[in-house]
RNA sequence: GUGACCAUAGCUCAAUAGGCAGAGCACCUGGUUGUGGCCCAGGAGGUUUCGGGUUCAAGCCCCGAUGGUCACCCCA
């Protein structure tokens, strides 16, 4: 029985890493540009932390999607299913609320949910996560959205737009939910079974139904944005105003709700193409009560989670090629024991000088070594043999045009550097 | 957790009507002295996902398990 990855877990192979480095490199670059500082929190945390952040209505809790086990000391611990709870814990634990506001953090790493895998959904996936803490200005919501948008834009995506909604706050949302529930109870007989369940467990969830019958009912259903309190309405209007000024494309989607219950006011997603049913490239929103819920002072916050696997899938679907990864352009070949020792030394000198280089291993025929050089895709094969060494030169073969010339060993480094345009 | 479809070499796929498991690509070696690609020859690589059953005979038919894909649920 051969080993294989667990269900829903994937290897990222070298041929995929051009995409990953492209996306992650851009994420880090943009975080720097927007003034976000990097933070890493543990993959494993006390289970209670995640339960508190998620509350009861979330599927992660309901459907036992947490990877949990009992640690040796009896503590129940879990692999993190999302970033925000851990970051909030770190924020409180290290008294980061005493830092100059706002505190802007980003993190990159794997998350784990025991779900049934399908297109764009895995049990382990990597997220780029950004959080802006201690600021309730709608311009903060905008900044988080702009960070996400810039990432997609600079990666070369076309035609993406935000799905945007406001789901109110603890002041105005309860009244809205009451209206919503009342509305659906009036149409209870036409409501499909799945949505009856959602209505009981998490009424807002009915809004993003896929049932035809419910969709028809939603035409007339009360909308959250029509039931916002004064503060929430102003916040939402400021945000859309800023989005207009920056010309960031968005549509107001009254049916947009989010999986985590801690969101207030702003919620948004960006949808990608060719991702099947799992079309959210990122999801985020405002979570003003969250820091408090993990034992910290009342602190407003906005954040976004961006799925790297989905971006990579979407890049491929849109035919966007990442820049090629750098690879050595030189291989040192050799004939004879003395020449091989010299080749080992030369390869080392090249690398120490910052010039990527490969060494032909073994003591095979020149033909075989050239074949290796060809397959490694190098531009130059540097050939060392007794004959050359006696005259203090190396034969450099250009693998592209098949030309060869002798270069004095003393000047080889600078010769190669010049040809490959590597700054010294 | 529910449902549908699928599973043959590292990859992409063949294998009449149940009748000796194959090709292309990739990989290794060779085509004589110190020269890659193209070409030619050869080689390695399989418990046909696994376990049962039917049959003289199963990659093929039946049952079960596992895994994959897609959808629901939910979400990045």
How would you portray this structure in words?
The chain has 424 residues and is of the alpha+beta class. The chain folds into two domains: 249 residues, 2-Layer Sandwich (BirA Bifunctional Protein, domain 2), CATH 3.30.930; 89 residues, Anticodon-binding domain (Rossmann fold, 3-Layer(aba) Sandwich). Helices cover 38% and strands 21% of the residues. It has an eight-stranded mixed sheet. The chain has a five-stranded mixed sheet with strand order 13-12-14-15-16, with helices on both faces. Strand 3 and strand 4 form a beta hairpin. Helix 2 crosses helix 4. The longest helix is centred in the first third of the chain and has 18 residues. The two termini are 52 Å apart. The protein binds one RNA strand of 76 nucleotides through helix 3, strand 6, helix 7, strand 10 and strand 11.
Task: Summarize the structure in short.
The protein is of the alpha+beta class and 424 residues long. It has helices spanning 17-34, 47-54, 59-62, 84-93, 138-155, 173-186, 193-201, 212-218, 230-245, 290-293, 308-317, 337-352, 366-376, 386-391, 412-419, and strands at residues 37-38, 44-46, 68-70, 76-79, 103-112, 124-133, 162-166, 250-252, 264-271, 280-286, 301-307, 330-335, 358-359, 380-385, 393-398, 404-408. It has an eight-stranded mixed β-sheet with strand order 1-5-6-11-10-9-7-8.
């Amino acid at each position: 029985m051969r080993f294989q990855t667990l269900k829903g877990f994937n290897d990222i192979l070298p041929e995929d890493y051009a995409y990953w480095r492209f996306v992650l490199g851009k994420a880090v670059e943009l975080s720097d540009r927007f003034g976000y500082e990097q933070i890493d929190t543990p993959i494993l945390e006390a289970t209670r932390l995640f339960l508190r952040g998620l509350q009861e209505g979330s599927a992660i809790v309901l459907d036992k999607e947490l990877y949990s086990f009992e640690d040796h000391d009896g503590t129940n611990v879990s692999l993190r299913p999302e970033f925000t709870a851990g970051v909030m814990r770190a924020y409180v634990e290290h008294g980061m609320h005493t830092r100059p506001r706002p505190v802007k953090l980003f993190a990159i790493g794997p998350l784990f949910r025991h779900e049934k895998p399908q297109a764009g959904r895995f049990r382990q996936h990597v997220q780029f996560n950004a959080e802006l803490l201690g600021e309730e200005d709608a311009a903060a919501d905008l900044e988080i959205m702009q960070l996400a948008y810039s990432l997609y834009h600079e990666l070369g995506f076309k035609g993406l737009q935000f799905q945007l909604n406001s789901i109110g706050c603890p002041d105005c949302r309860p009244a809205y939910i009451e209206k919503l529930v009342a509305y659906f109870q009036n149409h209870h007989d036409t409501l499909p079974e799945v949505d009856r369940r959602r209505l009981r467990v998490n009424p807002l969830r009915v809004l993003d139904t896929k049932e035809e019958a419910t969709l028809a009912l939603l035409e007339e259903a009360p909308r959250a944005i029509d039931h916002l309190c004064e503060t929430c309405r102003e916040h939402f209007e400021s945000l859309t105003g800023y989005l207009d000024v920056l010309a960031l494309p968005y549509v107001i989607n009254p049916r947009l709700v989010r999986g985590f219950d801690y969101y207030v006011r702003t919620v948004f997603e960006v949808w990608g193409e060719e991702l099947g049913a799992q079309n959210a490239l990122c999801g985020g929103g405002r979570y003003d009560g969250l820091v408090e819920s993990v034992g910290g002072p009342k602190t407003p916050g906005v954040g976004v989670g961006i799925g790297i696997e989905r971006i990579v899938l979407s890049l491929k679907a849109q035919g966007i090629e990442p820049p090629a990864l750098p690879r050595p352009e030189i291989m040192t070949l050799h004939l004879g024991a003395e020449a091989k020792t010299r080749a080992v030394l030369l390869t080392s000198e090249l690398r120490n000088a910052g010039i990527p280089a490969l060494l032909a291993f073994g003591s095979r025929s020149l033909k075989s070594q050239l074949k290796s050089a060809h397959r490694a895709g190098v531009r130059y094969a540097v050939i060392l043999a007794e004959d050359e060494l006696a005259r203090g030169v190396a034969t450099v073969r250009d693998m592209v045009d098949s030309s060869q010339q002798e270069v004095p060993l003393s000047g080889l480094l600078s010769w190669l550097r010049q040809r490959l345009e590597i700054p010294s």
